[in-house]
Amino acid sequence: MEFDLSTGLLSVPTSKLTIDEYPPEVSDIHSNRVYFSLVIPTFKERDNIENIVKILSELLDNFIPDNYELIVVDDDSPDRTWEVAQSLLPDYPQLRVMRRQQERGLSSAVIRGWQVARGDVLGVIDGDLQHPPEVLTQLLEKVQQGADLAVASRHVDGGGVSSWSVVRRFLSRGAQVLGLIILPGVLGRVSDPMSGYFMVKRSAIANVTLNPVGYKILLEVIGRGMVREIGEVGYVFRERTEGESKVTWKQYVDYIRHLLRLRLTTGRVAKFRQKVNFPLGRFLRFGLVGLSGVFVDMAVFYLLSDPATLALPLTPSKFIAGEVAVFNNFLWNDAWTFADVSINQRGWRKRLKRFLKFNVICLAGLVLNIIVLNLVVNFLIPNPYIANLIAIAVTTIWNFWVNLKLSWRVTDVK
Ligand code: GDD
Ligand code: MN
Q1: For the segment 302-341, what is each residue's pLDDT rounded down to a tens digit?
Q2: Residue 184 belongs to what domain range?
Q3: Which atom of ligand 1 lies nearest, measured to the CA of 40?
Q4: How confident is the model over 146-170, as pLDDT tens digits?
Q5: Is the pLDDT of residue 40 over 50?
Q6: N or C terminus: fewer CB in 10 A for the chain?
Q7: What distance in angstroms lies between residue 280's CA and the mean position of ligand 1's atoms?
């Protein structure tokens, strides 16, 4: 059931973020297919929503009457944008409204909207009127001329920004350059990879699982979709008149995470990783936890052994410090590094068992550390610090690998 009769609102899909090859079987009053589905993601756009729905409807009623739909996807805005949109339903037969209460975020909002879309062409436009609606017809023409993806761009003829400060222009271009370095194959294909105003053929993104973080859904579409031809249309990014931007420093962090994730999971890198099959993400988490353990070890060691504090003898101090660090590492690894595994092995007894195995392996790791250290110092590199680094690296890989196979056994039988 994708439609709630009592509220008139769309139900939120709960499946993974994949677009089907064909529109969903529609069971609501909007039972016909359309050519174009335009998603309007909103968060706190109460003062814009009526205006944009009105302008878009007039425009598209002229251009492709009855052959489009507008899908507002609101993330349960505290200003009740969804309610305003809901109140417009009787006047705009092409309008549909989704209120998301469980999930958050611009990119996933767009995908959820596309999942209920009935069109062959799927588009997105900001809900604050910063994207000039007139450009839609030119974008649609690009698609009709054969483009799989049509992007509204600030950086081609006819494009630009209205009155941005030097700092903002610099940040925007800086983000683009960084993206070009990390992901040239994706960002190099369009002049404005940051654009949130574009449309794509359903067939170009069907059946791939989209996995975006944050704001920049276009990267995901180009990075994972099967986009051959791309068309671009210039537009001027307008100033906001109502409401405010939701961009914070978090969007910049998300953007970098998104770039790295795409880098690691698409193209040649993904193929290589598939072949080698090394759980890199897990290993990095394990390493980070290990690093936290170093600090725990140092702190406890200081508290126990320092003449200014407890002044305990060296060996017992080191032993207790090491054990506390092992305990610290275990807790983090169990809750984070191997969370997906431990969640299927609940209960205190099982957890204790994992802890004991972890402990034994770490102890063996310590022995290994000492052996490697001695071997390296005596036969390879006399510098004890470099040798210790090598020993730590070897031990970390050992600890990780054996714990992966033993303490948190991923290949557990059903
Ligand atoms: N559903 C939902 N959930 N909508 C959101 C969310 C969210 O978490 N965050 C923002 N939005 C909606 C806003 O209500 C607005 O309609 C649109 O997404 C863009 O958000 P702004 O906060 O206005 O972003 P901007 O003005 O900085 O625009 C930048 O990002 C856009 C989106 O990628 C520019 O780079 C634009 O070119 C780009 O289109
Ligand atoms: Mn905006």
Answers
A1: 999 888 988 888 888 888 988 999 999 999 999 999 999 8
A2: 3-274
A3: 16
A4: 999 999 999 999 999 888 889 988 9
A5: yes
A6: C
A7: 32
The residue to mutate among 156, 239, 246, having the most atoms of ligand 1 within 8 angstroms of its beta carbon, is 246
Domain total of the chain: 2
Tell me if 207 is assigned to some domain. yes
For residue 410, name the pLDDT band (cuts at 50, 70, 90).
low
Distance of CA 263 to the CA centre of its chain: 12
Pocket test for ligand 1, best of 74, 106, 232 (most atoms within 8 A of CB): 106
Name the residue at shortest CA distance from atom 37 of ligand 1: 195
Quick one: which ligand is closest to 85's CA?
A: 1
Q: Is residue 413 part of a domain?
A: no
Mean pLDDT calculated for residue range 233-239:
95
- The per-residue pLDDT for 414 is 47
Ligand nearest to the CA of 41: 1
pLDDT confidence bin for 28, thresholds 50/70/90? low
> Which atom of ligand 1 is nearest the CA belonging to 154?
37
Cα 120 to ligand 2 centre (Å): 26
The number of the ligand 1 atom at minimal distance from the alpha carbon of 109 is 1
Of the candidates 216, 249, 274, which is a domain's last residue? 274
User: What residues does ligand 1 touch, defined as CB less than 6 Å away?
Assistant: 41-43, 45, 73-75, 104-106, 109, 126-128, 130, 194-197, 215-216, 237, 245-247
pLDDT tens track for 134-143: 999 999 999 9
Chosen domain end from 242, 259, 274 = 274
Bridge partners for 74 per DSSP: 42, 99
If one compares 25 and 383, the residue with the highest pLDDT of the two is: 383
Q: What is the model's pLDDT at position 30?
A: 56
Give the C-alpha separation, 88 to 71, whole Å: 12
Average pLDDT of the chain to the nearest whole number: 91
How far, in Å, is the centroid of ligand 2 from the Cα of 132?
Answer: 11
pLDDT score recorded for residue 31: 62
